[in-house]
Amino acid sequence: MRPGATPQTRGATMPTLPQHGQTWTIKSANGTVADVRSSQTAAGTAVQSWGSNGTTAQGWTFWAKENGSFLLETQLTTGKHVGGQAMVMDFNYSTGQAWLYNEHNQPNQHWCFEPLDNDWVRIRTTRTNEGMLYLTAAAPGSPLTLSRQDDGNPAQRWQLVPAGGISSGGGQQQPQPQPQPQPGGGGGGDFRSEMLNAVNAERGRVGAPPVRLDDRLSAAAQRHANDMASHDLTQHNGTDGSSPWDRIAAAGFVSRSSAENVTPSNSVPEAMQMWMNSPGHRVNILNPDYNYIGIGYAPRQRGNWGRYVQTFGKA
Length: 315
Hints:
Layout: E1 23-28, E2 33-36, E3 47-50, E4 60-64, E5 70-74, E6 87-92, E7 97-102, E8 110-115, E9 121-125, E10 133-136, E11 145-148, E12 158-162, H1 191-205, E13 212-213, H2 215-231, H3 244-250, E14 258-264, H4 268-276, H5 279-286, E15 292-298, E16 307-313
Parallel strand pairs: 13-15
Antiparallel strand pairs: 1-4, 1-12, 2-3, 4-5, 5-8, 6-7, 8-9, 10-11, 14-16, 15-16
Protein name: SCP domain-containing protein
Domain SCP: 190-310
Region (Disordered): 1-22, 144-193
């Protein structure tokens, strides 16, 4: 047997694999299933291990994407959502855990199913920045994590079983119309004032001094928001190769320290919720050393989501 190959078991059955539009419950070999904590659909809600109970919080609708991967939408929003409410399983690479997040078509939301044997599969994120990582069950009530392959760990072995929230016959779920998320309100108008007020409200709760809006930092933020929206990307490097610090310097702001937050979103409250639920972004917002902020927003152009950018500086 060549190194790294999976041993073949005589008489083993091939696992059930998903098809586009089907809804399944994802059950691990340790007996728990992938569950949306407290049946909440807000961005940042943990996807946890829990005992099977047949609710829609444990159903996942599979939407086929490129290279054999799937987007996993919680059954809580399948066929029911309006703009900005279609929530999918997302790899939060800041924490190494799974959570719900608005669809933005990046690799950390696409999942590949690798057949093992006897109806078991491994589930791998297509994001490879941190290496090849696999969905791993946890103790009941704890978030699912992403870990390197461990053939001896039953928490990395999964089965697709009929979802209790949808009636079905024999486990083969009937395809449903694929949702197309639409932008919500809140992206237009005086978004900078709305965002500035939201940031300073969060800072006030922890005793951090308020930040002031700076036109130069806002120019850097707007430049990057326009770039990401026009290319349907969410990243810190610009398509011209610029870094956040390059853009801040080019705008004429001389900063002793600086930071940038970016997110796909169609409203200020949604963007703030996503950032405040992410430890690294939250630190930037609450950092008492920063005394200036820049804010940029570009409405969607090629994808389903606009792009918000915050740049922070210390003058």
